Amino acid sequence: MKLTLLSITRPILVIVLFVVLGILGLYSYTQMRYELLPNMSIPFIIVTTPYPGASPAEVETGLTKPIEDAVSSADRIKRVTSLSLENVSVVMVEFKHDVDVDKAQQDVQRKVNTVTGTLPTGAKTPTLDRFSLTERPVVQLAANSKLSDLELGTLLKTQIKPRLSQVAGVGQVQFVGLPEAEVSIALDAARLRALNLSTLQVVGAIRAANLNVPSGNVRDADAAYSVRVVGKTDALDHLRDIVVYRSPAGQKVLLGDVAAISLTPKELENRSRYMVASDTAQPEGHAAVGILVKKQAGANNVEVSAAVRRTLTQLEKDYASAGLHFTVAQDGSEFTLAAATAVNHDLMLAIGLVALVMFVFLHSLRSSLIVMVAIPASLLSTFIFMNLLGFSLNLLTLLALSLVIGILVDDSIVVLESIYQRMEKDGVSSDDDRKAAALNGRGDIGFAAIAITLVDVVVFVPLSFSPGLVGDLVREFSLVVVISTLFSLLVSFTLTPMIASRFGKVEHLTRDTLMGRFGLGFERQFARLSAAYMRLLRRTLHYRKTTVLITLGLFLTALMLPGAGFIGGEFMAPADKGEINVVLQFPEGYKLEQTDAMAKQFEQKLYRLPDVRRVFTNVGANPEGWSSLPTSKNAVEFAVAFSPRNERDKDLNTLTREVKELAVQVPGARVRAYPLGLLGSDGAAPILLMVSGTNRDVLRRETTRLTEAIRQIPGTADVRFSGNVRKPELAITVDQEKLARYGLTTEAVGMAIRTALAGFDDLTMQQDNQTVTMRVRFAEAFRNRTEQIGQLTLTNAYGQPVELRQVATVRETFDPAILERKDRDNSMTITSQAVGRPSGDIGGDIQKAVADLKLDPSVQITYGGDLEMQDDSFGKLGLMFLAAIVFMYLVMVALYNSWAYPFVVLFSIPVALFGALFALALSMNSLNVFTILGLIMMLGLVAKNAILLVERTNENRERGLTVVDALLEAGHVRLRPILMTTLAMVIGMLPIALATGPGAEQKTGLAWALIGGLSSSMFLTLIFVPVVYYYVARLIEGRKGGGRKEEQGAPLAEKRRLIQAELAVVALLLLAGNTLAQPVPPSSISPSSVPFPLSLRQAANLVRQQNGEVRVARLGAQKADALIDETRRLGLPTVNGTVQYQRNISAPVFFFPAFSITPDGGFSLDNTRMTPVTAALQNQYNAGLTVGMPLVQPSLRVARRQATVGQQVALEQERAVTNRQLADVKKLYLNTLLAKEQRVLIAQSIGRAEQALREVRNLYRAQLVTDADTLRAFVEVENLRPTLSKLDRSVRLLKGQLLVLTGLPADTDLMLTDSLTYPDAAIVAEEASIEGAYTQRPELRQLALGVAASELQEQLEQVRRRPTLNAFGQVGTLSQTGSFRFSDSRWPVVSFVGLQLNVPIVNAATAPKIQQARLAQQQAQEQLRYTRTAIANEVRSCLYALDEARDRIRAQAGVVRAAERSYTRTESRYRQGLTKLGDLTDAELALRQAQTNRLQAIYDYQVAQVELERAKGEVE
Predict the structure, then answer these.
(1) What transmembrane ranges does the database entry give (predicted)?
(2) Do 475 and 463 touch, CB atoms closer than 8 A?
(3) How many Å apart are CA 1171 and CA 1149, to the nearest integer?
(4) Are 183 and 239 in contact (CB under 8 A)?
């Protein structure tokens, strides 16, 4: 009260305070940056150790296991996983979320350093990297120029990379396909063999010669000189002069004698291309060097992207002479800005809608503005604390600001409503009375305002302390809501009463103003609603048990929705960012050139998709999509960006499926296509299972079983496991006894082979001030053929040559391409995408499948990906949900000083959950982090209604009212603020719930949960909470029966009537509550979730009623009717009235000769002098009434006949359009039936093929058939599936066209009730059909009427030469005055009547017009004759088509029976082993073809019947 009193007595202080807060808020807003999501750190360290030339097994033994053992001793580790690939070891260490990432990285670095010295010789130094959920590059660039490849590579590496790295926020710049140079020393194996030299000798000679040795210093008398022996050279000719070997006789062998030395481009590990769609040119790929720009930890995407773009523009200017050009292939900040813009738009809409609700309820602009002040005051003040806490403007904080709009006005509404009640009750006659009313009104409601605000606040306090990833996600959201809500309470206690005390006014509505009439009408309707609510509340309090049972039933029904499958579960709803990644992985052993060629084939198909805007191709990418893992020459990654969501009709899942369908056509490719989610590449594998075990063979067997089981679960796609890829390998097994005999060691053999094949690249030299690697290895002719490996020459310690095949065995094998471990145990990873179902539902089915498989006990399964994050986040959010309820209860206990009545408020939660869950089910949203966040937010919002009721009821009871009377009075008084505040929040959230822009997938579910919960709470809390309060009050008072005496003893019939009325009203309220949870369909047709049955006759009726073209033609007929009415009225009299006022600024003056009066009384004129006379006064008024009427007008009669003919033409046009549209809809209906029947046939064929596949597999297990038969059966099944998908799409397309023709809503789910059958109708005679067409075709009638219209036009031109006679009359008055004193004016009346005769004499254009009319008549007659002939031919063609289709149907019936018998017999013989699978496949194909032919014949017959009806003009 003191704060409110201070605000009222010292208003300037409050105004200054909020002005300061507003200025600081605006400044804080300008300082905050845009982000997509709050900063979410994940403690994940990757240790990468290259080991050139090593196989996965050697990598696992020599590198992976020692590093695993070392890092496993670090603190707070959650999981250690590792990958052992060819040439590299990758160990991934995941820490618990509360670990400091910097300290964790330092700890891991120390652990790795302890084992670095024990790693095998040849292994590189381990490197450590952090992994982030948002590790994808901020900007992907493509660079090209006019320079050569090597020059461009040097420019990018030496000039461009440093400039980009210096941009603020840039953390790492990586190149894809960067051309680099190296010094190639290609050894001649034949020459080495002839000279008895080994590769190690050559390498040793080069190392010994290419060396700079510091040799001390010399202190001379004048200076000190350092001494350095220079052996390194930057000239290739000097390398050729290096002595490799000197014989005892002194003969030298130079390096140039045994090797070809040249500066060549380094072998590329990647190739990149880009494509940017253009409206002016065909899309094509451009070769370029890819540049991946990653941001630093904590840097802002938008700022980094903008800074990089500015730097690129400057670089293009600086290197314009080199033609350097950059193209942005992908920019991660675009979606961030688009999502932020969409939320800001929703925020503005929410403010506008809340203002409209306030204006409707308060029907006063003054009162609405007083309440709306709370929104800018609270939001601007919130920005201050957001800036101080380091928050960003991201999807969560902006969403919180949008959702909180309705909450911000709650307190001000309640306070202002209380103040106005005080003003009405106490009366306001002076400023002091207004101030007293404001102070007392705030005091009356202050306790309830504090309660509802604190309840909202305490709900979000536990969320702000939530740990883990979900805590990072929702912390900023919850704190923004808390801060803004507390500021709204401050505004309601200061600004609102202060403004009301100055400008508040009790407005009495009258019918004299539009606003008054609206307000009175609204109040009447509200009074009726209030009276109905009071009657319902009385019935509810009388039949309390019925109310409790109904509410309990609704609550239990809602709780069953998730378990029944109506509401799925997942970590996050998939987001449509318009970007996908496509990875094509080819068989192991593919060269980069082969992969590039296949990638170009796919690009040609991909570029032609209309929605593709940008494509960035990375040939040689890592198949797992992680840029931190080694590349793979047999994999290619396509980063595809589509047009924005509002510019395309297809969603991202549909586009991903289309791209995948194109990719599977590439031979030999394993396809993985996934959309990019909010967290980066989180859409790659939402379903992830890690299967671990000690025995790798058992592990592989059980993983294979589990993978097959997962593939059978609906919703899974791209199911694969990590251990099923094997690559070809040459295994060289040395014989230790032979090695010892020839004086060799395994190490020497391995180093020689590695140097010969992979090359020795530890040596460098300078070229153009750049360090260039030297690679020593065999020339390509000696190292790229497997048979040459055994001929590799080794030199032993005695200088004797030994071929490799003399001491080792070379054999080809297929070994795993990757070995995986988890927590120092063997493991394999199963991944899958989720398509069409929430990942949580799929995870539940996987758990059931795991239980049914009964896997080997040694195998353990760990769930990862979205399943793990969902389990973790749901558990934490569930705990926060319970904590919020507990905190709500404790706050209310402290405020009410009672343990019982706060318990009553908690009963508003079940009725709110009912609405929230039903809203999620109806809007087809799942339970995810955002929707659960909405449920938690709902707790505080729905409790406010119950708080207002309970608080008012307690006050009434303190004044001496009984429990029932107190509840009735509380319901009556609190109904208005409850409806106003709840509707403000619900309507304010509608823009978010109906949003379709970027990021809408996350926020719509949250908004629907809130809307559903608030809507059901608004209705059911007003009914259920009073009943609970009654029971609690009776329990406290120790009474067995409650209520007043007059409530008892009602007759049985009256009770039954009351129960029926009560149930009807409750059902009505529930229906109204649910309609708020989902938009009303635009038509009376059921929404798309309910199938709409449609027969062919019903479709025809809908065309007649709703088809657009038919309605246009019908309007044309109505227009012709209006023209007839117009021509009839042309013969009636016309009356025109005119009124004219004229102001004479300069009146006309006439000059007359001067005259004088003579003595005799006459006049004497003096022509030498002129006297001016003014001819008009200043003001002149004219008024008149004119009447005209044609007496003789021959053209009117012809015009009436023309209008009648025009009416008949319009009616025939309507018939023609109707017949055409009916024929089209019938053919479209039949086409849809044909597609459905063909789908049934294909489904049957698939069933038969799958049955054959199962039988073949059984026979294969029994070794009765070959694997070729199994593959053929499998291919037969898979070849049929695309046809099934194509038919499904065709049916959807045809149904969409049916909806257009029938005028049904686009979301209607059609269910065709007719079937494609053969109606054996009687044969129609040809002559009768043609005669019927002559009489029924509207086109012929239109042409006949056209002939009549031409005749009438000729008559019209002729009668225009006849005389016409018109009667006319006029009455009028004219007056002039020098002033506006009309009483001094005279108004003389003038009237006349007359006849007007018009006689045409000469009109040169009449004769040509008559000639034109005659020619038009002849033209119409010729057209009529030609059309009759064409229609007769059309009827004959339809009859011929009908007869031909009838003959085909009869013939195909026997063919189908024969094909069925053939298939049955062939199948039986195949089961007995008497025939081959090919015969069975051919029989099935013949059966399917026969059935298809018969179905096509029936379709052709039905279409021919429709065409015949159309040709005859008898379409029904």
Answers:
(1) 12-30, 342-362, 369-389, 395-416, 445-465, 477-495, 548-567, 877-896, 903-923, 929-950, 978-1000, 1006-1032, 1058-1077
(2) yes
(3) 10
(4) yes
The dihedrals phi and psi of 838, each to the nearest 5 degrees, come to: -65, 145
Give domain status of residue 1242, yes or no.
no
Q: Which long-range contacts (CB under 8 A, 24 or more apart) does 562-567 make?
A: 562/917, 562/927, 565/841, 566/921, 567/917, 567/920, 567/921, 567/925, 567/926, 567/927
Mean pLDDT computed over every residue of the chain: 79
- In DSSP notation, 92-153 reads EEEE-TTS-HHHHHHHHHHHHHHHHTTSPTTPPPPEEEE--TT-S-SEEEEEE-SS-HHHHH
Helix (H, G, I), strand (E, B) or coil at 574: coil
Is 1041 part of any domain?
Answer: yes
Q: Report residue 9 as tokens.
A: 């007595």
Q: Are residues 625 and 653 in the same domain?
A: yes
More confident residue, 1062 or 1147: 1147
* Residues 786-793, mean pLDDT to the nearest whole number: 73
Work out whether strand 1091-1094 and strand 1309-1312 pair parallel, antiparallel, or are unpaired: parallel
Distance set, CA 838 to CA 558, 569, 576, 674, 683 (Å): 19, 6, 15, 15, 12
- Mapping DSSP to helix (H, G, I), strand (E, B) and coil, where does residue 65 land? helix
Q: Which residues face 671 on adjacent strands?
A: 584
Contact between 486 and 449 (Cβ < 8 Å): no
CATH code for position 550: 1.20.1640.10
Q: Is 621 helix (H, G, I), strand (E, B) or coil?
A: coil
Name the pLDDT band for 1073 (thresholds 50, 70, 90).
very low
Enter the tokens of residue 653: 């899942």
For residue 1345, being part of any structural domain is answered with: no
The type of residue at 83 is L
State pLDDT tens for residues 1334-1393. 788 888 888 888 888 888 888 877 877 788 888 888 888 877 776 656 556 667 778 888
Beta bridge partners of 214: 228
Between 92 and 461, residue with greater pLDDT:
92
The verdict on residue 81 lying in a domain is: yes
């005859």: which residue's tokens? 1512
pLDDT in tens, 366-397: 777 887 888 888 889 999 998 898 888 888 88
576 touches 1002 (CB < 8 A): no
Neighbours of 1090 (CB within 10 A): 11
Q: Quick one: which of 1504, 1110, 1119 has its CA closest to 1338?
A: 1110
Whole-angstrom distance, CA of residue 642 vs CA of residue 653: 12
Taking only the tens place, the pLDDT of each residue in 669-680 is 888 888 877 665
| DSSP one-letter code for 158 | I
Number of domains, the chain: 5
Structure tokens at 1049: 């003893």
The DSSP secondary structure of 793-843, one letter per residue, reads: EEE-TTS-EEEGGGTEEEEEEEEESEEEEETTEEEEEEEEEE-SS-HHHHH
Distant-in-sequence contacts of 670-673, Cβ < 8 A, 24+ apart: 670/584, 670/585, 670/586, 670/720, 671/582, 671/583, 671/584, 671/718, 672/582, 672/583, 672/585, 672/623, 672/718, 672/720, 673/580, 673/581, 673/582, 673/583, 673/718
User: What distance in Å separates the CA atoms of residue 1112 and residue 1220, rounded to the nearest whole number?
Assistant: 14
Q: What gap in Å lies between CA 122 and CA 102, rounded to an integer?
A: 30
Say what angle helices 929-958 and 865-896 make with each other, to 10 degrees: 10
Q: What is the DSSP string of 831-858?
A: EEEE-SS-HHHHHHHHHHHHHHHT--TT
Do residues 493 and 540 both lie within one domain? no
Residue 1076, domain extent: 528-572+898-977+998-1080
1043 and 1136 in a common domain: no
- Across the range 898-905, mean pLDDT stands at 82
Looking at this protein, which amino acid is placed at residue 506? V
pLDDT at 1081 over 60: no
Residue 294: beta bridge partners? 172
- Dist CA 316 CA 314 (whole Å): 5
Cα dihedral 878, 882, 883, 884, rounded to 10, equals 100
51-77 pLDDT, tens digit per residue, is 877 788 888 888 898 998 888 888 888
